[in-house]
Amino acid sequence: MIEARGLRKRFGDFEAVRGIDVAVRRGEAFGFLGPNGAGKSSTMRMIAAVSPVSGGELRILGRDPATEGPAIRGRLGVCPQEDTLDIELNVFDNLFIYGRYFGIPAADVRERAAELLEFVQLTEKAKVKVEELSGGMKRRLTIARSLINRPDLLLLDEPTTGLDPQARHLLWDKLFRLKQTGVTLVITTHYMDEAEQLCDRLVVMDKGVIVAEGSPLGLIQQHSTREVTELRFGVADEGESHEGHAEKVADLGERVEVLPDRLLVYSEDGDEVVAKVHERGLEPVAVLVRRSTLEDVFLHLTGRTLVD
After folding, report:
1. Span of the secretion signal (predicted)?
2. What is the pTM for the complete model shown?
3. Which domains does the chain have, with CATH numbers?
């Protein structure tokens, strides 16, 4: 569905994407994971055939976006990071008019719009103006609009940014159901749980390059430990910083990461780490034992967190 070799994107002297290789198979959910500025959105715009390639090779659905852009775009669905709905129109007309842009007959668009409104649970809002919708409803309508042309490939750029947890989970369910019907999904996100929930495979991007590739579970197993113990010490705890405490627990795990507000001790048994911390007379004000996540993978690979 997508094949990139040595793909590059430059803006003047700045190179946002620095020679990446990507292959996306039919029917999978593929993710681009990384912080803001990693090159994810620049890559997505090239895949969407709306931003020219600066270097390397790119094929979308077997076609060259440099010469076959309209043909590619006709088979894509795009859910941009920011909602671009027509606020002067009601919910149904947002779908109907957008469908007509693709040259789909009016009767077919009406039928398809009704199906999509039911799919995203907005049937009762069909005649409501967009500006009256909640943020979660607007995102669901944007995804419905991106499906109006029955795309082979759906591109989702930060699909759940700004949504509350309930709205995010509802949206995840809709995307999972789309994948079950055979739609290929390409997702950019900086939410770790989102990538783990939705993606079959993903690449971790940082500063325009790919630093790791694999399944979420495979990346965690390869680059982290089974568990992580988070230790937070008081700011006035003997006048000592978290860096100072890190030296006292450095031998309790495979590695220790120092964050501004806590220590992360990576090991196979978090409870054992906690017990040994207390044995040494250390008294953190907060302790959490959790499983490793993709954020731990990113921290290990790049030396900084995803929210930097």
Report:
1. none
2. 0.86
3. 2-215 (3.40.50.300), 225-291 (3.30.70)
